[in-house]
């Protein structure tokens, strides 16, 4: 594996990430939730920040851009369709573009819904996905700006990635997500096992990520809106999966 991912906490429940290309030493912060934890992680690792990859415009993902640019000579890459909402972007990208971090290449995936221009970064060689607030462990982001159809389409793009893909998401919401998932899918034995693991991880003060996409496909209800089980659960037999997805998302919003 040529990419090292350092995981740390930021703000109240954000994950902070440093992505480090071993071959060249280039290091990217994935989003910029809070300057202090990012700078501390860089110091602990002995790495120099060269890049920032932004996924969307929400304040808890961009707040530290000015402080990090003041400290390091960094290049900030972010979503083209949110350029007017994010200060400090140097490179604008959209679906299908490739972002280079030394010898590591990330493909940009378009995942609208949480925000209209939300993007994810996928390193195909190492099977690493930075999904921010599009996809969580056992959950997905709220639809603050988008609509069910495009958000479901974006989640299907992520679902089509290899089962071995490691998901690094934007927030530590896994425990709460597990409780909701169990409320609508209580007989899922794989989900039951994962929920028990999550309780143990959180009790030990450990993060619940990364999680493998292959496992998420079997237990994350938001990746399974086209499973007839959920259509039946919500009384939507025969409905478009986007409508079922909307019902699951509404259920979580009100949970």
From TrEMBL:
Reaction(s) catalysed by this chain's protein: an S-(2-hydroxyacyl)glutathione + H2O = a 2-hydroxy carboxylate + glutathione + H(+)
First-level EC class: hydrolase
Pathway: Secondary metabolite metabolism; methylglyoxal degradation; (R)-lactate from methylglyoxal: step 2/2
InterPro entries: Clx_II_MBL, Glyoxalase_II_hydrolase, HAGH_C, Hydroxyacylglutathione_Hdrlase, Metallo-B-lactamas, RibonucZ/Hydroxyglut_hydro
Positions annotated to bind Zn(2+) 2: 60-61, 133, 171
UniProt cross-references to CDD domains, sorted A to Z: hydroxyacylglutathione_hydrolase_MBL-fold
EC number of the protein: 3.1.2.6
Keywords assigned: Hydrolase, Metal-binding, Zinc
GO biological process: methylglyoxal catabolic process to D-lactate via S-lactoyl-glutathione
Binding site for Zn(2+) 1: 56, 58, 114, 133
Domain Metallo-beta-lactamase: 13-171
Cofactor note: Binds 2 Zn(2+) ions per subunit.
An annotated Gene Ontology molecular function: hydroxyacylglutathione hydrolase activity
Cofactor: Zn(2+)
Subunit structure of this chain's protein: Monomer.
Family per record: Belongs to the metallo-beta-lactamase superfamily. Glyoxalase II family.
Function: Thiolesterase that catalyzes the hydrolysis of S-D-lactoyl-glutathione to form glutathione and D-lactic acid.
Protein name per UniProt: Hydroxyacylglutathione hydrolase
């Amino acid at each position: 594996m040529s990419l090292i991912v350092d995981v740390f906490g930021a703000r109240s429940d954000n994950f902070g990430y440093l992505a480090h290309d071993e071959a060249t030493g280039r290091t990217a912060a994935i989003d910029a939730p809070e300057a202090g934890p990012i700078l501390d992680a860089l110091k602990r690792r002995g790495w120099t920040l060269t890049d920032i990859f932004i996924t969307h415009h929400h304040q808890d993902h961009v707040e530290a851009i000015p402080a990090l640019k003041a400290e390091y000579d960094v290049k900030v890459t972010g979503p083209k369709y949110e350029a007017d909402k994010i200060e400090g972007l140097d490179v604008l990208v959209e679906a299908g573009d490739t972002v280079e971090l030394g010898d590591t290449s990330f493909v940009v995936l378009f995942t609208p819904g949480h925000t209209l221009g939300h993007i994810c970064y996928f390193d195909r060689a190492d099977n690493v996905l930075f999904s921010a607030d599009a996809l969580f462990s056992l959950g997905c982001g709220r639809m603050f700006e988008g609509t069910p159809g495009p958000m479901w389409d974006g989640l299907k793009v992520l679902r089509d990635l290899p089962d071995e893909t490691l998901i690094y998401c934007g927030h530590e919401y896994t425990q709460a997500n597990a409780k909701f998932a169990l409320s609508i899918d209580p007989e899922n034995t794989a989900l039951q096992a994962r929920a028990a693991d999550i309780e143990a991880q959180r009790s030990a003060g450990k993060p619940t990520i990364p999680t493998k996409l292959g496992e998420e496909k079997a237990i994350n209800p938001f990746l399974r809106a086209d499973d007839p089980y959920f259509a039946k659960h919500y009384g939507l037999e025969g409905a478009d999966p986007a409508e079922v997805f909307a019902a699951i998302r509404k259920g979580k919003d009100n949970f």
